[in-house]
Amino acid sequence: LEVDSARASVEHGNSRPTQHFTSIFNTFVLMTLFNEMNARKIHGQRNIFSGLFRNWIFVVIWISTFILQILIVQFGGYAFSTKALDIDQWMWCLFFGIGELIWGQLIICIPDSIIPECKKKPTVKPGEVEEEEEEEEDIEAEPSGIPSEEETAVKGQILWIRGLNRLQTQLKVVNAFRMGLDARYDRDQRKSLSAIALKHRQSASLDYADADNSVEPAQQQSAHEMDTIMHQANR
Length: 235
Known about the structure:
Layout: H1 7-11, H2 19-38, H3 56-75, H4 87-108, H5 126-141, H6 149-234
C-alpha cells in the first residue's frame, strides 16, 4: 500500500495517527460491511443481491455506515486516531472488502460430502416429517381441559384468601406507619413544652435580677441622705 510502518513509532511512545493503522482499521470495517451482503443468504444461494432493495432498512443502514466510515477516516483525526487516506489506499481497502463477496462464493462451492459427519446438520426424511406433522395435528385436535365447577370454586376461594391476606398486610403497614408518626409527634410536642418552660424560667430569673439591681441604688441613695442629715445635726 506504500504506507510507512507505524510499529517503530508506537514502540517509541508516539501516539499520533498514522496511515498504517488507519488502513488496517478501514479494511476491517469494509470487509465487515461486504460480509453483511453474504450474511443475507444462509441456505447456499449464490445470488446474494436478490431481494436486496425489498429490505430498505438494510440498505439505509449499509449506506449510512459506509458514509460514516468515510467521514471518520478522512476527518476523524485525533478523536478517532485516524489519518486521511489517498485514493490509491482507498482502492486497496475496497479491494480487500469486495474480496469478502468472492470468499463467500468460494465457501458455497464446497460440497457437503467433504464435511465431517459431526459438523453436518441432522437431516429428516420426508416420511418422518409427515409423521411429525400428523402427531402435531392430533395434539392440536385434542380438546383443552375445561375446569369443572368445583375447581373453579376452589380457585375462587384461593384467590379470595390471598386478597384478604394482602389487605391485612397492608393495614398492618399503615398502622405501624401511623404509630410511628404519632410517637414522633408526641416527642416533638414534649420537647417544645420543655423548651417553653425553660425559656419562661430564664425570663423570670432575668426580671428578678433586674429588680434587685434597681433596688440597690435607691437604698444607697437613702443611706447617703441620712448620713448628710446626721452630719448637719452634729454641727
